[in-house]
Write a structure and sequence with these properties.
CATH architecture: Alpha-Beta Complex
Largest sheet: 7 strands, mixed
Distance between the termini: 28 Å
Oligomer: single chain
CATH superfamily: Spore Coat Polysaccharide Biosynthesis Protein SpsA, Chain A
Radius of gyration: 17 Å
Number of domains: 1
Mean pLDDT: 94
CATH topology: Spore Coat Polysaccharide Biosynthesis Protein SpsA, Chain A
Number of strands: 11
Number of helices: 7
Bound molecules: cytidine-5'-monophosphate
Low-confidence stretches: 1-6
Strand content: 15-25%
Shape: globular
Length: 244
Amino acid sequence: MPPGGSQVSTGVRCWGLIPAAGVGRRFGAEVPKQYLALAGRPVIDHAIGAFVAHPGIAGCAVVLGAEDGWWADVSAYAGHPRVLRAPGGAERCHSVRNGLEALAQRAADEDWVLVHDAARPCLRRTDLDRLLEALQDEPVGALLAVPIADTVKRADAGQVAETLPRSALWRAYTPQAFRLGLLRRALDHAATKDLIVTDDASAVELLGLRPALVECSADNIKITRPEDLPLAAFYLEQQRETPC
Ligand code: C5P
């Protein structure tokens, strides 16, 4: 992978990290959801493509499961010189940890790492740019997110225990950007407490830090259930017709 990419500030580079070692249990297909076909390419290639195509990203790590029998056959990025591979872990947070370890061979502790789910194929260039822009003067890190429109209930045994004030609630999306050294420390810290964090920001929050929320387009969805795939196809078509 050549050094390069434009820089957020002098000497600091930005890298992509794509955890793709999930099996997509909730989706329920035989092929993991990141390898399903979407607008002529596997879902994962849309996610990786956003990073490989961006001049501000120096390179990308893709984290693959031990049982992965699809990557080499279906991804256009298998063997790409700016894409390196790392082995998956039991949970997403373990996979991200492995990806960071692989990136550390090329990246510095101060470099930014943008962690982005392989199952989010509709990331807009404008949203990626907005996140990179937010890092210019951000001490902790930042994540793309969307304010919640629905009223949210906390449940207890199938009944409403509490209605949460939605004005303060956001959906956490990806990419989530943190300095490589900080994110490694945060995930190690969560692991020592036996905590399985479901996003990268949660691990950083456990250190007492407060990442910034960067509002993005709501079409940056994660493919989770079968109905999400045609929705993602619709969003990609809309983005093609009205480039962002
Ligand atoms: O399961 P979920 O949809 O939350 O997964 C989010 C992302 O994390 C997906 O891209 C999935 O492939 C990845 N993942 C992983 N390793 C795991 C579990 C999930 O890389 N053990």
